[in-house]
Each structure stands twice: as C-alpha cells, then as structure tokens.
Amino acid sequence: MAEEEATAVERNGDDQSETSDYTSKDEETEDYRRGGYHSVRIGDTFRHGRYVIQSKLGWGHFSTVWLAWDTHNSRYIALKVRKSAQHYTEGAMDEITILKLIDEGDPEDKKCVVKLLDHFKHSGPKGQHVCVVFEYLGDNLLNTTEEFLFIWLKKFAFIF
Description:
The chain is α+β, with helices and mostly antiparallel strands. The protein has one domain (2-17, 26-159): Phosphorylase Kinase, domain 1, CATH 3.30.200. Helix content is 27%, strand content 28%. The protein has helices at residues 2-8, 86-105, 141-156, and strands spanning 45-46, 51-59, 63-70, 75-82, 116-124, 127-135. It has a six-stranded antiparallel beta sheet with strand order 1-2-3-4-6-5, with helices on one face. β3 and β4 form a beta hairpin. The radius of gyration is 18 Å and the shape is globular. The chain starts with a helix and ends with a helix. Residues 1-31 are annotated as: Disordered. One of its GO terms (biological process) is regulation of mRNA processing. Its EC number is 2.7.11.1. It catalyses: L-threonyl-[protein] + ATP = O-phospho-L-threonyl-[protein] + ADP + H(+); L-seryl-[protein] + ATP = O-phospho-L-seryl-[protein] + ADP + H(+).
C-alpha cells in the first residue's frame, strides 16, 4: 500500500523515465532544461492528484502530451504540458483563449472541435508549465498512419 501511495505522490523530478528508450519519435533530451519540457513519468500526478499519468501520447516543439486518468470524473483525458519559457506560456494562454471562444460559440458541439476541459500551471525544476486538459479522442494521427502503412506493407509485400 505504501508503494501505491508513493506512486500517486506528485513528483517534479528533473530526470527522464528510466524505462523509456530514446528514439527518433521522442523529443530531444537537451530540451529538458530550464524553459523547456517538464519531465513526466508514468504514475505522476497533476492538479493535486486529480490527473494520473498513464502513458505518453506524443510531443511537439511546444509540448508533450500524455494520456491521464481524471480521478474526479473517472475518464481518460489528454494532458498537454507546455514548455516553460515565457513565449511558450504566452502561446498556451492564447490557445486557451481561442478554445474557450470556440466552445462559447458552439454550445451544442456541432463544429467538432476538441473540447478544452481544464487548464492550470504546474511548477517544476524547469520552470512553471501551462497544462491544458482536453477530451481524449484516441491515438495520434502519426501513430495511426504508421500502423496502417506497416499493415499494408506486410499484407502486400509479396507484390513487390
């Protein structure tokens, strides 16, 4: 039980996961510095334990995105953790403003735009990171495309 409680404790560690191997699909490790990415590990919690990290969904130049469990609403969400430099913070706040305006203008959800569920700031050793919570819509398009291509090549390789 103590191990489970220790896993659920919010960590702000500055090292990357020991279990993940760096690949070309991963962000550059040198971007894990002040002003850069926040180190996130499976089991980390955000927003006072509300969001529990399950797995990594992807990354981009501005942020990493994680599948997390929302303990208040018993559902999966996508948690975007922005880099902490000021210009990334400003961009994140602009994104939040735009998503709120879209949501207000589409109360019946007819425009099919991903829903902003929550946002907050998270302090860590690399600075203060804006975190944006979205509804979870599934795997990222790059992974889906690569999986489809692999299946297609495997299925039709005999033609070549």
